[in-house]
Design a protein that fits this description.
Number of helices: 1
Distance between the termini: 39 Å
Number of strands: 3
Low-confidence stretches: none
Mean pLDDT: 76
Oligomer: single chain
Strand order of the largest sheet: 1-2-3
Structural class: alpha+beta
Shape: flat
């Protein structure tokens, strides 16, 4: 089963979304992350390209 018919374009699109979210400070919700499932992408990529938003 393939989820992306053009994997190179899918990877580029995801990188673009994360780059734009990092530049604007936009939070991204992901149901596969622990509660509350929000991350704030960062401009730098290593070692961890996002901040997980803490709960409580």
């Amino acid at each position: 089963m393939a989820f992306d018919s053009d994997q190179d374009k899918a990877i580029a699109a995801r990188h673009d979304v994360f780059k734009k979210a990092a530049a604007s400070g936009t939070l991204i919700a992901a149901t596969h992350l622990p509660f509350p499932g929000l991350v704030q992408p960062l401009a730098e990529r290593a070692p961890c390209p996002h901040h997980r938003i803490a709960h409580g």
